[in-house]
């Protein structure tokens, strides 16, 4: 274990843009950026072992503060998330805010307390999440109990879990919310950011190593809100920043530019929940350093296979002897599995064979995204990022 304090080192910048290649130093190892953080919601990645993650070049694992909260004391007693999970590298947890605010039928079910009258007749089974200044009251579908998480509770949970990087508690608005509501929610998120900091400082050394805290930026699609909150959070004592919110795809680059132009350059930035290749390329160019998303493994389990020339579904090519992607260095392709073999496993009525498909396809897709970030990093170091970006997008999206 590396006991040095958390810090970020910039190695090279993209000319005329906000992106950079760097190294995030954490107590459990370094993360060479840009980097994709593999999502292990409950401290493990579905159908993959820790050895599998090592084989595909994973650098870090992101777990879910909401889903691990009821095991947080057990994890703490084991020495923290890395020790408990068996993943010896760097880890990150989210605050759990997104999960509690999106219970039931999604963000459309999230209301502020002053809007409760609009849904007063909603049945409990709809698991309405109620946001107030103190935090979020919600109905937990897993325990069938009412529960509550606010900034203080989120920080206590995350510090018990003991990841190297935590996220401050924030309110995620939806694309349907008005400018006026975004102003209100953003003010609440900024107050929660300070409360998160205050509580985090009480517990960030409880497990014997420093646990970092990122502030989370919201503000919807509005430039004035994004720039204003970026300036405010930049003045707070955060170790890095989470770039959050509901984005229209065409607005992603501009929104990230607004944020990163105002944030301190010497602190890392994590783009929450996106993994499409063009999102990673644009995100990197506009200043994001790390990324996460469940899509590579979730889509693998449904038969979607990633390649440098776009994706395809394994069910559309059931008899091909070709590898998943010619030249791929993932364990699945190196072992010589063909598309036909994976199709047979996917369609098998034997559970162990279907699970083998989930393992093999997930390793391929995750390795594809991890290799993408490795190639992006090398292109930045070589001074050829823009050429790499244009070539990749032309090949992948055929444009």
Helix-strand layout with pairing:
Layout lengths: L6 E7 L6 E7 L2 E5 L1 E5 L10 H6 L5 E3 L1 H4 L3 H6 L3 H5 L5 E3 L3 H5 L8 E3 L16 E3 L4 E5 L4 E5 L1 H11 L3 E3 L11 H25 L8 E6 L5 H12 L5 E4 L8 H11 L6 E3 L5 H9 L4 E3 L2 H7 L2 E4 L2 E4 L17 H4 L4 H9 L3 H32 L2 H13 L2
Parallel strand pairs: 4-5, 4-15, 5-6, 6-11, 7-8, 11-12, 12-13, 13-14, 14-15
Antiparallel strand pairs: 1-2, 2-3, 8-9, 9-10, 16-17
Helix pairs in contact: 6-7, 7-8, 8-9, 10-14, 11-14, 13-14, 14-15
N-C termini distance: 45 Å
Rg from Cα = 21 Å
Largest sheet, described in full?
A: 8 strands, parallel, barrel
Total domains: 2
Low-confidence runs? 104-125
For the structure shown, list the relevant keywords:
single chain; 8-stranded parallel β-barrel; alpha/beta; 2 domains; 17 strands; 399 residues; TIM Barrel; globular
Task: Characterise this structure.
The strands form 4 sheets. The protein has an 8-stranded parallel β-barrel, surrounded by 6 helices. It has a 4-stranded mixed β-sheet with strand order 7-8-9-10. Strands 1-2-3 form a 3-stranded antiparallel β-sheet. It is α/β, with parallel strands linked by helices and 399 residues long. α6 (151-161) packs across α7, α10 runs parallel beside α14 (351-382) and α14 (351-382) packs antiparallel against α15 (385-397). β16 (304-307) and β17 form a beta hairpin. The chain has 2 domains: 7-33 and 64-93 and 157-293, Queuine tRNA-ribosyltransferase-like (TIM Barrel, Alpha-Beta Barrel), CATH 3.20.20.105; 300-397, no CATH class. It contains 15 helices and 17 strands. Residues 104-125 have low confidence and may be disordered.
């Amino acid at each position: 274990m590396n006991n040095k304090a958390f810090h970020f080192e910039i190695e090279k910048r993209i000319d005329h843009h906000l992106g950079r290649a760097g190294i995030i130093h954490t107590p459990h190892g370094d993360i060479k950026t840009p980097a994709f953080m593999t999502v292990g919601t409950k401290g493990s990645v579905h159908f993959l072992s820790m050895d599998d993650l090592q084989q595909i070049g994973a650098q870090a694992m992101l777990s879910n503060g909401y889903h691990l909260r009821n095991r947080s004391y057990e994890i703490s007693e084991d020495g923290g998330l890395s020790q408990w999970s068996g993943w010896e590298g760097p880890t990150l947890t989210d605050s759990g805010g997104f999960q509690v605010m999106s219970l039931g039928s999604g963000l459309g079910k999230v209301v502020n307390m002053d809007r409760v009258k609009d849904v007063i007749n909603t049945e409990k089974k709809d698991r309405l999440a109620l946001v107030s200044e103190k935090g979020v009251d919600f109905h937990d579908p897993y325990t069938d109990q009412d529960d509550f998480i606010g900034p203080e509770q989120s920080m206590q949970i995350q510090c018990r879990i003991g990841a190297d990087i935590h996220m401050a508690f924030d309110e995620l608005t939806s694309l349907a919310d008005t400018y006026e509501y975004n102003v209100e929610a953003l003010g609440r998120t900024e107050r929660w950011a300070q409360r998160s900091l205050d509580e985090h400082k009480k517990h960030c050394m409880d497990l014997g190593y420093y646990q970092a805290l990122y502030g989370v930026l919201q503000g919807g699609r509005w430039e004035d809100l994004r720039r204003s909150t970026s300036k405010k959070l930049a003045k707070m004592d955060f170790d890095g920043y989470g770039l959050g919110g509901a984005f229209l795809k065409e607005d992603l680059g501009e929104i990230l530019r607004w944020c990163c132009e105002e944030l301190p350059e010497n602190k890392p930035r994590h783009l929450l929940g996106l993994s499409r290749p063009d999102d990673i390329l644009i995100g990197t160019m506009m200043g994001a350093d790390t990324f996460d998303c469940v899509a590579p493994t979730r889509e693998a389990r449904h038969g979607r296979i990633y390649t440098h020339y776009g994706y395809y579904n394994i069910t559309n090519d059931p008899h091909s002897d070709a590898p998943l992607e010619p030249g791929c260095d993932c364990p699945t392709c190196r072992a010589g599995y063909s598309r036909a073999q994976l199709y047979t496993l996917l369609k098998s009525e034997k559970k162990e064979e279907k699970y083998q498909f989930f393992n093999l396809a997930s390793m391929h897709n995750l390795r594809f995204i991890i290799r993408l970030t490795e190639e992006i990093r090398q292109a930045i170091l070589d001074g050829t990022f823009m050429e790499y970006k244009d070539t990749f997008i032309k090949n992948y999206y055929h444009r």
